[in-house]
Amino acid sequence: MGEIIATSINAGITPAKGLIRLSIRDEYPNQGTDPLTYDQMVNVINNSLVNRLKGLGITNTKEISSELVKALTKVQSLFTMSSI
């Protein structure tokens, strides 16, 4: 997901991953090290991450968030199939 953000905003992967981590903390400050559910991650993308991107002056946040949710859905499906 960091790669998608990095490509979309013309930044490095490490800062893009940092945006994801900070957005998770914004959305779920008491989450700790517990893994997020699919729905929680979608909330992070559509709320906190979009707000952070807007704060950086990024205008195509809707397209970025849509691409991220698609990627997340694809990965979730792969994990589901591998656990059967």
How does this structure look, described?
By secondary structure, the chain is mainly α. It has one domain (2-82). Helix content is 75%, strand content 0%. It has four helices and no strands. The protein has helices at residues 2-9, 13-27, 38-55, 61-82. Helix 1 (2-9) packs across helix 2, helix 2 (13-27) crosses helix 3 and helix 3 (38-55) runs antiparallel to helix 4. It is globular, with a radius of gyration of 13 Å. It starts with a helix and ends with a helix. The model has no long low-confidence stretch (mean pLDDT 90).
Question: Topology, pairings included?
Answer:
Layout lengths: L1 H8 L3 H15 L10 H18 L5 H22 L2
Order of helices and strands: HHHH
Please give the largest β-sheet.
none
Low-confidence stretches: none
Q: Helicity level, as a percent range?
A: over 70%
Shape: globular
End-to-end C-alpha gap: 25 Å
Oligomer: single chain
Mean pLDDT score: 90
Features:
single chain, mainly alpha, 4 helices, 84 residues
Write a compact overview of the structure shown.
The chain has one domain. It has four helices and no strands.
